[in-house]
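User: Okay, second chain of the day. Same drill as before: sequence in, C-alpha cells out.
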Amino acid sequence: MGKQIQKVDKVALALIKQDVVDVVANRVNEMVGAGQLQLPENYAAGNAIASWWLALQACVDKNGNDALAICTKDSVANATLDMVVQGLTPAKQQCYPIVYGKTLVCQRSYFGDEAVLKRVFGQATRVYAEIEWTGDEVLFEIAGGRRTVKSHEQATSNITGKLKDVAGCYVVIEFAPEQKRPAECEYMTIDQIKTSWKKSKTYQGPSSSSPHTDAPDQFCKRTAIRRACKRLINTSDDHYLIAAVRRQEMTMAEAEADQLAIEAGESGEPIDLEKVQRGLDEKRAAAVDAQAAADAQAEAEAQPQPQPQPEPDRELEPKPESDSEAETQADAEEETSQGGDEQEASESTPSEESESQSASSPFSRFQDLIDKHELNATRARKVLVEALNLPDVRTLKNDDYDYALSNIELFLDLYKGKAAPTTDPE
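Assistant: Same drill. C-alpha cells below.
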C-alpha cells in the first residue's frame, strides 16, 4: 500500500499565511522603516510576497505532498525572508520554492543571479554568455590573472544545436560605469559543465532525452552564468544580502544531505556519509572564513583615536549597573558574537550600519557625531546602552540616539569616563 499524499486544507492555509507569511511581511516593513534593510529601487516587497504565497500553494515534493503540509514553519519563514532580502520575485522567474525533506528553500534561478548581481553592482551591470561550438576559434588573453576575450571567430555552420558539438561556454560581466572596474570573464569547458549537471536530477546523461540535451546551448549558458555570478555575489559587501545567500546555501546543502539519507534508507542502498559531511564542512568553513575576514576589517576600522575632552554643562546620571546585570550583558554579547548567519544578519558592524541608514535618521546623525569626535563606534554604543540601562546594543532605537544627540556634551563626557565608569570598549 502506497503512502498517503498529504494535502493542506483552506483552514490550514489561512493559519500558515497568518502565522508565517504575514509575520515575515511585517518584519520586513519594520526593518525597512528602521533603516536596517535597503530594498532595491522599484522592488515591491508586498507584491513579491503575494506572488511567493501563490507559488507556495502550488509547490509539492517529489511524492506529490503539498509543501505547506510537510515543511516546517521556520523553513517557510526563512525562505520567504531570504527571497525579500535578495530582492527576488517568483513572478519574474527569479526564484522558486523547492522542498528538501521537511525543509523549504528559496532557490534562485539564473535570472535571480543576474538580479542580485545588478543589485550589488548597479542596474547598468550587463551579463553576456556565448557558446564555443566545435570548430570555433576563441582566443583569450590572461594578464595579471584576469582573463579577457580577445577574439571569437565562428562560422554559422558550427552552430548545430547538439550537445556533442559544444566545446565550452564563456560569460562576460560588464559592470556599471560607477563601479570603475574592468569586466570579468568566466570560462567552462563542456566537461566542467557536465560535471555540474550531474548534480541535477533531471540530467540522465548525454545520450538520454532531457532539457539539457534538448537545448544544450541554453543550459550551458545558465550553468556558466550561475558560476560567474556566484563568486561576485559571495564576495560583495552587502551584509544582509550575503547573510541571506549563505543561509540559503547552507540550508540547501544540509537539506540535500538529509534527503539523500532518507532515500538511501528507503532503497537500502549505501550512502557515502563521509563525502556528504566533507561537503557540508567545506561550505561551513567557507562561510566562517568570509565572515571572519569581514569582522577583522570592521574591527580595524573601529580602532579608537585620541580626541579633545569637552566640558559638560550638566550632569548625566546613568543608572549604575550591578554585577549580575553586567554578566547578563556580557553573556548576551558573547551569544551574539557566536551566533549563526541569521543573528549576524540582524546586527551589522558600525560601518555597515552607517551605510544602511538614511542620511537624515537619528542613527546617521549619531554616527556623524562619533566620527566628528573620532570616537570608537563600538564603545560609543555601549556607553549609550549603559546610560539608558538597556539590555544590549541590539535594543537601541532611534529615540535612544535622539537622547544622546540632545545631550551631546554630556554623552562625550561619559564616554571619556568622567561622569561615570564605563565598560571596556573591547
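Residues 239-267 form the longest helix (29 residues).

User: Thanks, on to the next one.
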